[in-house]
Amino acid sequence: MSEQSSSFEVNFDGLVGPTHNYAGLSYGNVASLNNADAISNPKEAALQGLVKMKAMHDMGLKQGIFAPHARPDVSALRRLGFTGNDAQVINKAAKESPVLLRTCYSASAMWTANAATVSPSQDTTDGKVHFTSANLNNKFHRSLEPSTTSNLLKAMFNDDEAFAHHTHLPDQPFFGDEGAANHTRLCDEHGAKGLEVFVYGASSLNPQIVGPSKFPARQTLEASEAVARLHQIPQEQRIFIQQNPDVIDQGVFHNDVIAVGNANVLFCHEQAFLDQAHALTKIRQAYTGEKLHIVEVPTHAVSVQDAVTSYLFNSQLVSLADGSMMLVAPEECVKNPKVADYIEFMLGANNPINSVKFFDLRQSMQNGGGPACLRLRVALTQTELSKVNQATLMSEEKFNTLNQWVEKHYRDKLSDHDLAEPQLLVETRTALDDLTGILNLGSVYEFQK
Questions:
Q1: Across-strand partners of 132?
Q2: Would you tell me which CATH number, out of the four given (3.30.230.10, 3.75.10.20, 3.40.50.10750, 2.30.30.30), belongs to the domain 7-448?
Q3: pTM for the complete prediction?
Q4: Chain-wide mean pLDDT for the chain?
């Protein structure tokens, strides 16, 4: 069997962290803002995510686990002038700036679609899988993530002959980079050469490229171009498309809220891209595979608002072992009549998407992230998969172990008042110390060094 025919797309889902809370930190993310100050349930959130991971594994898909980050980020609070031991830092922050404390408690690293951009070895001139951690500088709470993300990626993909890791882009808006949430790869099959589609919201250098006026464009053209260079993607295998500024202003903060691709299928809303007809023509012309399917959802069937509230396009598209393609969608899609009707229509239409599975991800959805937000896609050959840290791959035993770990360490209720308790810091560090052993990660967290 050739390496091409034995290649897989592995989904590494973010394991929701013990400090999952609703702080409403993400301006431009409607769900995040609407649920600010609600009481969260970290235990339920983590268990919901594990159920999804296990279900993907049981379908015969390759499924991995991406560990959460250590929170609160006490070192960030110290950089902001809060002094003393850890407990004193937390107490002072709670009294002087509870908003900053909430920010440093954010469990947003659970959305690993923002962790990095990944290019498989079939697309890179050196034949390695390339990773660039996103700088996420548009939001302070997410800008705290890149260094730990890089540590985790290196612990998961720890063979220098197969994997290349790049430092995140400079930490300022000029190179705003939000990772794979604004990147997709189109190909006849995962082991074939692909077309890497980079979607940006604005340009830092070209004033003629008009961005959104209400909400920020989190991905710049310059960042996407830099990642493509770092990953050594040939010119003919990469394309840069602008997201529609109007839909960004309607709450489509990342491209994966309005479009998703898998293999030779691009599933998108008709308002996803600026000058959509021209954008889709460019994609069709650049695609060198045998056949590209573009499933374009009309506005009269599903409005942009319905797309945002249901997260229809923040679903996963996955290729099953029998060659069929499945939409992995949040339960909110069933509850929206127009979205549910469209999914039923799509499954009966002439396209490769022929089944759907719905998941309860309410805890994540309320904070602004659906199934696609929770996973980082990594296309790997069988040889490359064998070089991945095997302890980070899902199995029946791993699922049971992680469920027990969550039940042991996680709270089932978290409010602002709880964040002021230094005991929560002790609990989270104890939990993550145990987890690094379960996932064989080594000392990836600052508190372990």
A1: 117, 166
A2: 3.75.10.20
A3: 0.94
A4: 93
